[in-house]
Amino acid sequence: MNGVYNSLRVVTHAKLAMLRSKGYIQGKNLDFDYKTAQGNPAIAVQIARQYVREKPDVLVGIATPTAQALVVAARSIPVVFTAVTDPVGAKLVKSLTQPGKNVTGFSDLSPVNQHVATAL
């Protein structure tokens, strides 16, 4: 698995660790299923449709293509995204302060302008 997918795997494991710390235990009070489209948008759409048919309580999309596929497929199921740099530009949310719809999440956008200004 290349570096990108290893990074996404780290994010997945971190999410599971956070859920465990809140008392959610796989197989007890948490059903967690993980599939990867490995960056292929067509496969992401197929996976998203499959998950929506299963009617989970919430869907979590890691990375932009997966989150986009879930948002399109899941009109009434809450979607949480992570590892998305520009959720507004990716059309996942209307704005960062008022996401709207059934979608929320975490952006990994780095405030580059602030870093450059600080460095100068």
UniProtKB/TrEMBL annotation:
Q: Which InterPro entries match?
A: ABC_transpt-TYRBP-like, Peripla_BP_I
Coiled-coil residues: none
* SUPFAM superfamilies named in the record: Periplasmic binding protein-like I (SSF53822)
Output the Pfam families linked to this UniProt entry.
ABC_sub_bind (PF04392)
Gene3D superfamilies named in the record: 3.40.50.2300
Name of the protein this chain belongs to = ABC transporter substrate binding protein
Organism listed in the record: Vibrio aquimaris
